[in-house]
From TrEMBL:
<keyword id="KW-0315">Glutamine amidotransferase</keyword>
<keyword id="KW-0028">Amino-acid biosynthesis</keyword>
<keyword id="KW-0368">Histidine biosynthesis</keyword>
<feature type="domain" description="Glutamine amidotransferase">
    <location>
        <begin position="11"/>
        <end position="211"/>
    </location>
</feature>
<comment type="subunit">
    <text>Heterodimer of HisH and HisF.</text>
</comment>
<protein>
    <recommendedName>
        <fullName>Imidazole glycerol phosphate synthase subunit HisH</fullName>
        <ecNumber>4.3.2.10</ecNumber>
        <ecNumber>3.5.1.2</ecNumber>
    </recommendedName>
</protein>
<dbReference type="Pfam" id="PF00117">
    <property type="entry name" value="GATase"/>
</dbReference>
<keyword id="KW-0378">Hydrolase</keyword>
<dbReference type="InterPro" id="IPR017926">
    <property type="entry name" value="GATASE"/>
</dbReference>
<dbReference type="InterPro" id="IPR010139">
    <property type="entry name" value="Imidazole-glycPsynth_HisH"/>
</dbReference>
<keyword id="KW-0963">Cytoplasm</keyword>
<feature type="active site">
    <location>
        <position position="197"/>
    </location>
</feature>
<comment type="pathway">
    <text>Amino-acid biosynthesis; L-histidine biosynthesis; L-histidine from 5-phospho-alpha-D-ribose 1-diphosphate: step 5/9.</text>
</comment>
<feature type="active site">
    <location>
        <position position="199"/>
    </location>
</feature>
<keyword id="KW-0456">Lyase</keyword>
<comment type="function">
    <text>IGPS catalyzes the conversion of PRFAR and glutamine to IGP, AICAR and glutamate. The HisH subunit catalyzes the hydrolysis of glutamine to glutamate and ammonia as part of the synthesis of IGP and AICAR. The resulting ammonia molecule is channeled to the active site of HisF.</text>
</comment>
<feature type="active site" description="Nucleophile">
    <location>
        <position position="87"/>
    </location>
</feature>
């Protein structure tokens, strides 16, 4: 598969939670210049910041705050600088996560709660299709039957985004289904995120990352 994204500098933020090497390889395939680091200045000055995440919501939030990742993400978004979250790196962008009855505050970039999947089989592990809305930039050029790789037991399943200012555009939300529909991806100005792992999703994931790099 030939990829066409122009070379950009991307930092994979290393706060101890996430498949940083897999993300590095997948981003390098797009033609991006990729660095794994938690260095504040490098993370702030990169064209794009990718925030991976694997494990428990509370542990990821603790690690992110200890690495000042919460502050970096907030500062980047305040300046319109692109950030992309993957898996738990997406979940922590919401207001809160609820695991084993314990509620943990997230970054609150989006309202909503990350809760246990309502399905007979958990975790949701394997390939699944998504329902991307018309006009999605993240899924541009991908066929509706494209499949992506998921590994998760929690997700945002009930979400509505009330935009108070008519001049503001609501997020572009992509859904998938495992037992019950859940949020699979969000595009919201400079902040994009996926519940699935594009770095493990073959050519479809590579095209999706190329689409993101192309917006930087």
């Amino acid at each position: 598969m030939e990829l066409t994204a122009a070379s950009k500098k991307v930092v994979v933020f290393d706060y101890g939670f996430g498949n940083v090497r897999s993300a590095e390889r997948a981003l390098a395939r797009t033609g991006a210049e990729v660095e794994i680091t938690r260095d504040f200045d490098r993370a702030m000055n990169a064209d794009g910041l990718l925030v991976p995440g694997v494990g428990a919501f509370a542990a990821c939030m603790k690690g992110l705050r200890e690495a000042r990742g919460d502050w970096i993400i907030d500062r980047r978004l305040s300046g319109g600088r692109p950030v992309m979250g993957i898996c738990v790196g997406m979940q922590i962008l919401f207001a809160r996560g609820i695991e084993h009855g314990v509620e943990t505050a997230g970054l609150d970039e989006w309202p909503g709660a990350v809760e246990p999947l309502q399905a007979e089989i958990v975790p949701h592990m394997g390939w699944n299709t998504v329902e991307a809305p018309a006009g999605s930039r993240l899924f541009a050029g991908l066929e509706p039957e494209a499949r992506f790789y998921f590994v998760h037991s929690y997700a945002v399943q009930d979400w509505s985004f009330d935009v108070q200012n008519p001049a503001m555009q609501p997020p572009t939300v992509t859904w998938s289904t495992h037992g019950k529909p859940f949020v699979a991806a969000v595009e919201n100005g400079p902040l994009w995120a996926t519940q699935f792992h594009p770095e493990k999703s073959g050519d479809a994931g590579a095209q999706l990352l190329t689409n993101w790099i192309g917006t930087l």
